[in-house]
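hey can u check if this looks right to u? its 210 residues, i copy pasted from the old doc so theres a chance i mangled smth
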Amino acid sequence: MIDTKNWFQLRPMYSYIRKQAENEKFLKYLEVSGTFALIAIFLFFAIMPTMTTIFSLLGEIKSKEAYIKKVDLKINNIIKAQESYSQVQEKYYLIEDSFPTLARYYNGTSNLATLFKESSMSINQISINLNENKNKANEFYDSYQVNIVGEGQYSSVLDVVKKMLNNRRLLNASNIRIGKLDTKKNDQDISKTIQINLSSDLYFLPDNNE
């Protein structure tokens, strides 16, 4: 059995050794903690710029992706608009030929003269009569009258009338007079020829700036 007196004498030494052991252990913990702290600080300052760059690049990529989607949407809308415009453009020419935005006297008279020539009829006279009641308050269109005097066979006269009904140009045959002519050929043959006097109103959209 340990002597109580000796134990009390050795107790201060034992306490000192124990404290030194605890201090050494604490210092080791402190050293390890400091090492990890330094490593963490080093990693933080070393990796932070790289992480910032990565996040910045990711933000730019997302921003560019959103921008590309907007551009693609605009391009698709432009393509659809061009397709719609092409479809409307085709119909526009049909409407313009039927109901032009200007009088186009030459085109109007040429159109009717072509119908006569295609029907093998000769034209004796062609004239234009400008209507005096233009730009009525309750009307948005104007018109002018084309008078044509021609000659041909009866079948040719019917063909002209048929072509006028199927003509693309918007017109109104306001007066048609048909008469018979007797003409001599080679002083012996008698050829019966039909004379037609045609008055047609051709409509157009006036220029309101005039």
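The two ends are 135 Å apart (CA to CA).
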